[in-house]
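task queued by scheduler; priority normal; single chain, no ligands, no partner chains; default sampling; output format set to structure tokens
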Amino acid sequence: MDRGKPRNMKRISMSLLMRFYKRRVLSALLAVSMLAHHASATDVTVTNTADSGAGSLRAAIGNAAEGDRIVFDIPGASPSTIILLSNLPTIASGVTFDNPVASPITLDRNGFGPLRYAASSMIDPGTLVLETSGAPSVDTDLDAPTGTTVFGARAVTGNLMVAGTLAPGAAATPGSIGTFKVTGDLDLTDSNVELDISSSSTSSDLIDVDGTLTVTDATLTPNFIGGQFKLGDNFKVFESTTPIVGGFENQSDTFALPNQPFLQAITDASVSGEFTFLIQDNGMNFTDVVSGSNQTAAAALLDRVRADTPTPSPSIEAKNAADALRNGTTDQAVMAIDQLSGSIYPSLIGAEIHHIQNNVESVRDRIAMQFGFDSDTLERAPWARVYGVTGEVDADEYETLGYRHRIGGMELGAGVAGNNGLSAHTFAHLATANLDIHGVDQHADIDSYRMGGAVEYVGPRFYVLGAAGAGIQNYEVRRSLSALTDSPFAESSFDGSAQYGYVELGTLVPGLAMLWTPYVALHSTRVELDSIRETGDTTFALINEGGAGDSLRSALGLSLAQSGLTPLGIATTRIRFGWMHEYLDESEAFVSAIANDGTPTESLTDRGVQAGSDFGFARVQVDMGHLFGGQFSVAYVGQANRDSFYNSLLAGIRWIL
């Protein structure tokens, strides 16, 4: 036996385990190091106005390390003035200032150099007053080079040169809105100005300069927060007591708003000493934000309504609703477009076809090869079953919304057979159902009533079965338009009809104590809907002349049947499975128009969701025991593909008379 491989595997496992623990230990050490660094950040206090020595600003700057805070706590009368006798050292990266006292701290440069910061510094000037020899300086008081970030929401007095990033607000992080007030000159040469602009509070950062604002080779980086911006909103982000000198490199750009596809921001410097962002329409069409077939048709209609191009002209309410969508988010626009689309109507046809074929399949399992054909008198076999069906169809590749279909009903039937292999059957289905389109609050209640008949011949080696029937449907549809108008729903009530046929041919192969039955079958179904007139919403209610859909499906399957004696009597189990293929169009099309207060606009074409053209199916029926003088049975009928499934459970009694 080769024992080397397990030993090697053990070594590999130990190596991986050690590597895992080593990474964990290193991660823990890194976390401890970061915590220790954070813990080591301290407040360095300025306690006097001396130029140097213990407690002085110069000593505090020299002692402060990255992350420390220089705090002014100078006793005595306020305000306090520090007069420099030489240039101050460069302030280390990450050192901030704080003045907990309301009165400002005055730093008199006395002719020496400006307050300088190292690159990567985070600078909050706080309430500093920077001057020279007791008067406002004529040169730079605070120098923030490239790589620094200047932020704050308090007033600073002095001349500032910011070549790094300027981000108004109490914190340098995005979303902190505040006013950065400068009494003096502000030079933004080569700077990047980050501005938070909020739609929810209609507020923005503001840089307020009581002096001269100079902008050279600087860049704007606006951060638009929220999705409630509206056409015509404006946000003042710069204000200066004198005309702004220069301009931003990208101030002629347009700025997209996150998740508001039809709006954009532009800059406006038309008012002297002010600089604002203005929200305007970007000219995109509704068709630019969707790609599905139905979505594109509905979006194109909204574009025509907004442009006032349909013939006849749409209502004022329709145009106002289309215009209001321009202020919405992408999700709101897509929801409105999906709601406007009347895809629920053609989808009702596809759903009814599934229901009918499901019923035909259950009848087939109830009657196929159910008689013995060995009696000298006619055999009669009535039956009654209740059933429930759940169907689910996903959105298709054209982004047509799917639906959930739930059905409850009763199946009644009766058959008669002689001893020549022939049998005849009649049956009826009475059902109530509902259908919900996914995600748009559109709902249909459906009542259906169908009758049919079937004939079967069973010979020594083959059998043939044929069935046909017809029925009617009543529909109550409620279609939400909440994303478009204030009216909650458009509603309709209409009827429909259906016809269907079925033929099956199979061979009988006994073996292994079972009856094996390979077979082929063909379903033919037609569903028609009468004309539809929606009421309720007068702006986007639809009208159409109804429609129809046809289905032709083949089935190739194998059926197995076996009977045996149980404590409850003879029990028979029938299992059937196979493959089904649709030959005709997988979905139906409806042509509608907006009712437009009785003067319809041009057409809107909607297609039903595609449920797929190929299905796998499985059927199981078990007849067992006795109940109310007959044989109790339960059954399952199911079919599925990657896009949809339909499952049906049945239970009832069959009597042999």
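post-processing summary
- The chain has three domains: 41-108, 135-281, 337-654.
- The first strand starts at residue 43 and ends at 46.
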